[in-house]
Amino acid sequence: MNIQDVTFEQVEATYSGRHGCACGCRGNWWYSSNVKKLESYNTVNDRQVKRDLAKFKKNAHLVEFDDQYKEIFSFETENRLYILRLLEGK
Which of 90, 14, 10 is nearest to 47 (CA)? Predict the structure, then answer.
């Protein structure tokens, strides 16, 4: 799958944080309003999700697609880890 083909409607969540962990302790997970059921601790922020999707498209040459899970894109910069998770089945 190509990141350039991904639309906002397909995105479940994005993450931006420092290297080392992606649980949320070193950065933030943002969820889109496309998610039907969220835990109370999840933060919906469509604006941030759209920003992060734009970052992925701008840095497409760095983006890796996770062949094992099929719904995960990621890329790293010198200081940050970015993850984009698609809605299941999208």
Answer: 14
